[in-house]
Design a protein that fits this description.
about 20% strand; about 300 residues; 4-stranded mixed β-sheet; globular; 13 strands; alpha/beta
Length: about 300
């Protein structure tokens, strides 16, 4: 494997900042394979849908942690569209076997409350087969849905928004020579939060305020707590150098809930309480994130109160 990676590096398929992906026009060359998604929740959801849509027989394994994450909702939907999925351990969880000749439905409905990734997976895979997708639930216009739709446009994939939350995507081919991937805003936010704690200026290069990523909203939470936010040619600067002390805030983090833990980490240092709302769905991610945050803060003798949506 290391030799193959080195050969790819020498031939230009991989270098420090670029990866070359050679497409196969929606056809998977090996339609009988074993795949280990390890602990990657995004890969788990996107690949499960893609493999079911394209057809073949696949065994999907994962880490022990990923086995705890519920997959029942998307498994049930795929089964209802004529795909056979056999769970090898606990029903509705990894690992499982997918046996598919493609979907026998041309229209599906998916609830976005538990995870918008199921919707994103369907929207992306639809280009290989053609599909009508109806989104339901509270997060039909969430940040990650918007990212997916924007990226479809960037790749030249055409879709019709037939109704407010219903999308028609025809089977189609596309070609893209270059694509610039934004730096990860989720990871950057940890450093931006440190600007408030350490009273420093923090610059993350190549991130800008027009980012498609929902976690950009975390920067405005920091602004509300006293930081200066400035977009420069190099990237976004968060400046907490003039913040001698800060107050807690009350905020709805439904659309950038990955930063719940980041805000929870700096909230104990605020002069007043912080209230984070509308994040019930993060109880169903790789762990119960609300419970995890509460346990860790309680272990430090920090008072934290949990409600249904916080």
């Amino acid at each position: 494997k290391m030799k193959k990676n080195y050969e790819d590096y020498k031939t230009g398929l991989i270098n420090e900042k670029r990866v070359k992906v050679v497409g196969t026009s929606g056809e998977i060359p090996n339609r009988k394979a074993t795949i280990d998604v390890r602990s990657a929740g995004t890969a788990a959801r996107f690949l499960t849908v893609m493999l079911a849509v394209t057809g073949g027989e696949y065994t999907l394994n994962s880490s022990e942690q990923m086995k705890k994450r519920p997959m029942g909702e998307i498994i049930d939907l795929i089964r209802s569209a004529g795909v056979k999925i056999s769970c090898l351990e606990e029903e509705g969880h990894f690992p499982f076997i997918i046996s598919s000749n493609g979907l026998d439905k041309k229209e599906v409905s998916i609830n976005t409350d538990t995870s918008s990734q199921y919707a994103s997976a369907l929207l992306m895979a639809a280009v290989m087969t053609g599909l009508k997708i109806k989104l339901t639930g509270k997060r039909v216009n969430g940040a990650y849905i918007k990212i997916t739709l924007n990226m479809l446009k960037q790749f030249g994939i055409k879709y019709v928004q037939a109704e407010e939350n219903k999308y028609n995507i025809e089977k189609q081919s596309f070609r893209l020579e270059k694509y610039q991937i934004e730096p990860d805003m989720s990871g950057a936010c940890y450093f931006y939060a440190m600007s408030l704690m350490l009273k420093k200026k923090v610059l993350v290069k190549n991130l800008h305020l027009n980012s498609m990523q929902g976690d950009i909203k975390f920067l405005y939470a920091l602004k509300k707590m006293g930081c200066l936010v400035k977009d420069t040619d190099e990237g976004i600067i968060i400046d907490g150098s003039n913040v001698s002390e800060y107050k807690g805030i009350e905020i709805d983090m439904n659309d950038f809930s990955d930063q719940t833990m980041t805000l929870a980490a700096i909230a104990p240092f605020a002069k007043t309480p912080t209230i984070i709302r509308n994040i019930e769905h993060i109880r169903f991610q790789e762990s119960d994130r609300i419970e995890a945050v509460a346990n860790e803060l309680n272990s430090l003798c920090i008072d934290i109160k949990k409600g249904r949506d916080r």
